[in-house]
Write a structure and sequence with these properties.
Blueprint (H helix, E strand, L loop, with lengths): L27 H24 L5 H32 L32 H6 L2 H6 L10 H5 L1 H9 L1 E7 L6 E7 L9 E12 L7 H11 L16 E3 L1 E3 L13 H6 E3 L7 E3 L3 E4 L7 H18 L7 E4 L9 H7 L7 E2 H8 L3 E9 L21 H13 L7 H4 L5 E7 L8 H4 L28 H9 L11 E7 L6 H9 L3 E5 L15 E6 L8 H9 L2 E6 L6 H13 L8
Parallel strand pairs: 4-6, 7-11, 8-9, 8-11, 9-10, 12-13, 12-14, 14-15, 15-16
Antiparallel strand pairs: 1-2, 1-5, 2-3, 3-4, 3-11
Helix pairs in contact: 1-2, 6-9, 15-18
Amino acid sequence: MRRSHGHARREAIPAAFRGVAKKKSANNWAQTLLVVAIFGAAAMLARAHTAHPAEPTGEIMALIEAQNRTIAALRGAAGRAVAERAAVDTKRPLHIPAPPSAGGAADLAGVRDHSILGLDETTFRATSVAELLKAYAPTLGGGTCEGDFGNGLVDRWRGARKTYCAPTTGGGSRIDCFLVKQSNHAGAGDNLCLGRNIQFNFRDFDGDLPRTYVKKYVDSRHQQQYSKIKYSKGTWAGTCATTNEWQAKHFPGWNVNWFHGFQSVNDLQCDVHESAPTLIIERDTFANFFHNSEDFVNALIALAVLEWKVQDLQILITDLYPRGPFWPIWERVFFGGRKPLTAWDLKQKYGTKNVCFEHAAIAILGAAAPITVASFNTRCSRSSIVRAYSDYVIRALGLAQRTRYHAKGDPKRVVVTFMARRSSGVWPEKRFCDSETSFFGCDFVKHLGTRPLGRTIKNDGVVVSALKGLEERTFPNGARVVFRDLDYSKLSFEEQIAANLDTDVMVGPHGAGLLHNIFMPDRAALVELFIDGSSANRHFHNLARWQGRAYYGSAFSNPVKAPQLVAVVASAVAALDLSKAW
């Protein structure tokens, strides 16, 4: 059941956890240097963005120098932290294995507000997400913009901490939650909680119950609630007493399953101990890039609120969906040296054992993501959360050196990418089913065939030919157009992101794939076609603004009038600032 993105949500938001036993660093002076460098860079960026929309050359150079100092401070602090941890803790390995195909840092000479891309692999993984985000300029637009879409939101969330389950003994369990009321979000608030010294038992995954839920999901024509189990009492437990804050309304949507599954106990019975900070996630869906990205953005926000490093992280995915096309985000972007574990993996690893976690967080669910605002045009632009998230994904996938910021290149070369939307694929439930290593067995979906896809352009071939004609045009700004017709469903996820990095104008009908626009270079523009009644949706207008790029949205008849579309795209090309390649 898809909830409204005007935020009259039927299955709203989350419950997750915030750390209470923060370990002291042996490197306080390095931390101080790091924070000073970051805040210095952020302050300079804020001044330039708010006071100088068109920054003079001297101001830009100051911004770049501040960014470079931030990167140097982060690298130095990370290197010293790794060395000191090895010296004081010989039980832990010095080197955390890097994710597959990890690439190097980008050369950010002349570039501002992309500091994550300039970090080497060790620094990137070893620096807390909170510190990485602080280096990005505040969100523009005034009012509540920074508090809704920037580091101000992270600060608000962190500052809302309340105890939901207080320890009954010294060193006992504790659950602290952070309930934030975001602008234009319905319900009692959007909750993030952290448990310390908490016992979990994943016995609900051990029997036939998961397959029963999957069958309901398929029989109900993919109702989301059946992709999550209603946990039995004692699924998680702690030696703590719940406070007045412990109320079902504070656990919106399917997070109420965690509310009902908790039990206060006198003693923890631990068969297994886990010390890694653990983020427990139940995905909104598994094969829709926009709705999947709600979970991805929320995971980044949760890590920032908790001040966790990805290097130490363990991800648990406890919904019953198959892995899906965007699994590389969990497997590589949020990679901490430990592969993400699915509900099936938890069954294999723990069975019915009691597992005690030092710190376990239940992540913010999709509907609480700030990027869900889609019923009106946002006034806010250049969201520090959206921009940092984009860079975070690019850097984690090892693609930083494939960005225009690193490669520079010919600024007059303009790539127009038509994001084809064609109905030529099987249902994702069938494509990604897995009878061997998941509960989502292929026997449930063997009846599914080709998936009907809405909002397809009826004269697709005519439109592609007309757009290709832009290669023969001349433009006042000197643009030389290179046209590409791409069906993203035929590309790997890494290939999709790489294509975005080399796109200046993205063109496509309204659909989840247009979220890819946030990975394009800064100078890029998005052209959205509203066909078949989709014009009320403002998802991608808002995402374009939050990234800080130009947006062109127009209603079209279907079949699309090709000259009308070409005129819009030509205007977008002509308006590009080609003084730089990015």
